[in-house]
Amino acid sequence: MLARSQNRAAVAGSVFDNCCSQAQLVRVNFQFSCSRRVLQPTNRVRSSCSQQMRLSKTSRDTFASPKVKRAAKSCMTPRLNIPRTLARPTSSDIELEALKKDFAELSGVPDGFVREMVPSMAQSMVAGIERTRIIPTNNTVNPTELRVVFYDSESESVMAPTHILDLSSSSKASSSRQAFLIHQLPFAANCSKFPSMPASSAATPAGNKTSTATLPVVRASVPSPETFSLFQMYLYTKDASALRAALLPIDWSSSMEKVVNRAVVIKGLWSNACVLGTLDNEEMWDVIDECWSVVCGVIEKTTSR
Asked: Residue 201's pLDDT is what?
């Protein structure tokens, strides 16, 4: 059991390092890069857990990528209300029957195991995101689906994104929208308030044999679109240590501006997780509490001088 936890931490850790620089990994004006590959039959899904050791390096590279790092750094520094603590929401369990209808290969697989196997696929899912591009379209008014092209579509090491998330800010002060390539499994399995996702051709074996596909567009609003990449990578990897390092990088306290920026990022991640009804085994909330406490302590110490 301990070895399994260590393997899983290694897998997610690398994805988190990359993700911090990849904050814009899946963000653009409906033009970007995605993945190619679908869920394998149950026996292959189960066997994917044995790949966790091999996923370690790639995961870290994902969270260390320049794009997620920019996501963690790209938050503006608005007037910020800094409460002493960030309340944990009350979460309810998520029934995965609807998800299992979309993925027949998950039939009979316990819900807990479905969630546990997501980190073992993180490397393949991130690789899929990086190898997909959205084909430009003239239909800019709330399209319901968009065409994408997959590069290296025959590779066994990538898993195709299943949907495109059209993300907007819930703040009335912002009308901007960002597009994220996502996989249905991590969000459906871990977010009780995530919008329902229509069936996707990319989530079928047949949809994995072509170089192009049409992906459904799902719309959602969150308080902090700027930190969504960090949230996405945590759902994929479930690596608490990597999340902690992403929220508090080495030089985070070198200036007051950076300290306040950390507060913006942490609160943004927390607010997104609350709004989407994130189901977690307390690790994510523990990291958020810890990092928030540290940042608030530095702010209080500095402003009390």
From this structure: 79
Is 272 a member of any domain? no
User: Locate tokens 């069936």: which residue?
Assistant: 199
Q: What is the pLDDT of residues 90-115, one digit of tens each?
A: 877 788 887 888 777 888 888 888 88
Using the structure block, give the residue that is written with the tokens 């996502």.
182
Give the span between the Cα atoms of 233 and 248, in whole angstroms: 16
Specify if 14 maps to a domain.
yes
Q: Establish if 284 belongs to a structural domain.
A: no
Residues 220 and 275: their CA atoms lie apart, in Å, by: 10
pLDDT > 80? residue 158? yes
**For residue 247, is it within any domain?**
no
- Measure CA 258 to chain center: 23
Range 78-91 burial, b when 16+ CB lie within 10 A, else e: eeeeeeeebebeeb
Domain housing 157 = 2-78+91-238
Largest CA distance in the chain: 64
Please tell me the total count of domains within the chain.
Answer: 1
Mean pLDDT over the full length of the chain: 77
pLDDT in tens, 221-236: 999 999 999 999 999 9
Assess contact for 286 and 234: CB atoms under 8 A. no
